[in-house]
Amino acid sequence: MALYIAKHNMFEIRGVIAMASATLNLRLAPRRMLTLREAGEYVGIPAKRFPGACSVRPVAMPNGSQLYDMHDLDAWLDSLKAGSPDSDDEILGRLG
Predict the structure, then answer these.
(1) What are the tens digits of pLDDT across the range 33-85?
(2) How far is 51 from 58, CA to CA, in rounded Å?
(3) Helix%, strand%, coil% for the chain, nearest 5
(4) How many CA atoms within 13 Å lie on the side-chain side of 85?
(5) pTM for the whole thing?
(6) Disulfide-capable partner of 84 in 9, 58, 71, 79 (CB 3.0 to 4.6 Å)?
(7) 38: how many CB neighbours lie within 10 A of its CB?
């Protein structure tokens, strides 16, 4: 992903109009693995409630950290939209 920002300013010096410009060009690498806090923000659940509300389990990384895969989070969200048997409404319906 590339982000391009240009800024142009007009100014006058001794009756001559000039234009100054500056360009900032950033390349952002997409992130796939998220911390608990970031995963909660990504799906819209507070970090404190996220582990109990979301069935996605973290991936143990080589450095020992536990990170959540965005692809897994997306699949979980898609399953909620599709009304999979694991959705809260289905579980409550089966309980009576």
Answers:
(1) 999 999 999 999 999 999 999 999 999 999 999 999 999 999 999 988 876 55
(2) 9
(3) 35, 35, 35
(4) 2
(5) 0.59
(6) 79
(7) 16
